[in-house]
Amino acid sequence: MPEAWWRGAVIYQVYLRSFADGDGDGVGDLAGLRSRLPYLSELGVDAVWLNPWYPSPMADGGYDVADYRGIEPVFGTLADAEAFIGDAHALGIRVILDVVPNHTSDQSAWFRAALAAGPGSPERARFWFRRGDGDAPPNDWQSIFGGPAWTRAPDGEWYLHLFAPEQPDFNWNHPDVRAEFLDVLRFWFDRGVDGFRVDSAALPVKDPDAAPDGRDPYTDRDGVHDIYREWRRLTDAYPGRMLVGEVWLPDQERLARYLRPDELHTVFNFPFLGAPWDAAALRTVIDDTLATLAPVGAPATWVLSNHDVTRTVTRYGRADTAFDHADRKHGMPSDLTVGMRRARAAALLSLALPGSVYIYQGEELGLPEVEDLPDELRQDPIWRRSGRTDPGRDGCRVPLPWSGTEPPFGFGAGTPWLPQPADWKDLTVEAQQADPSSMLSLYRAALRIRAAELGDGALTWLPMGDDVLAFTRDSGLTCVVNLGADPVRVDGEVLLASGPLDGDVLPADTAVWLR
Ligand code: GLC
């Protein structure tokens, strides 16, 4: 692959805790991941993105980082991490890490020092410590996980946390913070990693003392771009490395600002992820995406799922197929047969669009969201912080089923940290690789054809009716997706279809690749 490999890469998201467990403690780890690398190679992915693997008390699944230069002991050691990077590279798979600049763990050395040093100390200046308003917090900001965004230290001062109290926010006006993160990026680039996924990338810059100016006080503040310009300068010193931002912004113009040539290389396409299963809505998102990215020269990314959102099969089987953080529609009825058909079609759609594609682990197996986890096993802080009204994100984080007919389905020797449904016996890797009509077989075939035939040329829409998304790529590959109720006639040599065709007729909720 060329130096700008990320422009067209298929990137597989590894949620390490739930991928494969090598040491039998019920939690996925680096030994498990290394043993399963041949699976990823056979699937045909170009890169993996790993959720945080750093030492962490796991108050938010590792997004509470206690040490940015180490490996969480439950996952392995720094030597394991280096061996993993070497193994992946030997298979031609690049490695993207998660970096979390907005906040750290309350157990990090800096935050502990800040608490110990007391009010007014230089140690506290790296965070947002403030005196309250009497017994009330310094302002009315709310945490994204629910409840106030301020927690009181034993000496009476309050500190800011946009997420859980265990995740104190850094003060990015402080030079120590800026220098620290440049050094962290360097630390991992020097160990061979190929890029970073930047967590909560629109949030680091804020000023709780500033008077309200009518805009969101901590999202997408202009100053945030200085950070990414600095990071880009550093990244450019390492050839072939990239940065992808987690930027949830509805406004595509604001989003494109993160992708100016001297900032991030790509951002996740969340408008695409959130769009309902509707031809007009999806076409609008695709057109808007391509139109806003063209002027900054950044490639699109196509994302259907990740560790924070409802699994595709479940979402597409509901009456309302859009995804919205504020309303996860947890427990709303879902027809999983319909959902599976649409998820298969959506996979062919996203893999045929121009740009790179992210696949969240388990999507290639068509796993549904697990909605009946026992309450006492739920770990997502959203569950607790919402007063047990929002079950949160554990349902898309259940350990993968690899083989066998009962839990733990080859995940590892121990009891998985979240229980797997008994009916996943039909969804294991083992069961699916023996079945040419499985979701796994579809993904493998699609990735193979994509690598051989898709090219990086432009997309041209074909007029095939309001309920049909149809386009040709410059390479000659045509993708037709039927989102309507009526069958449509297609013409050409069928390379791959998401479901059975009836002669040259494409049924509802089905996609086909033609030449
Ligand atoms: C990002 C992560 C999410 C995490 C949050 C706080 O949105 O994807 O899992 O909880 O940031 O770090």
UniProtKB/TrEMBL annotation:
UniProt xrefs under Pfam families: Alpha-amylase (PF00128)
GO BP field: oligosaccharide catabolic process
An example Gene Ontology molecular-function term: alpha-amylase activity
Transmembrane segments: none
Glycosyl hydrolase family 13 catalytic domain ranges (all copies): 13-397
Highest taxon above the source species: Bacteria
Alphabetized SMART domains for the sequence: Aamy (SM00642)
Family statement: Belongs to the glycosyl hydrolase 13 family.
The name this protein goes by in its record: Alpha-glucosidase
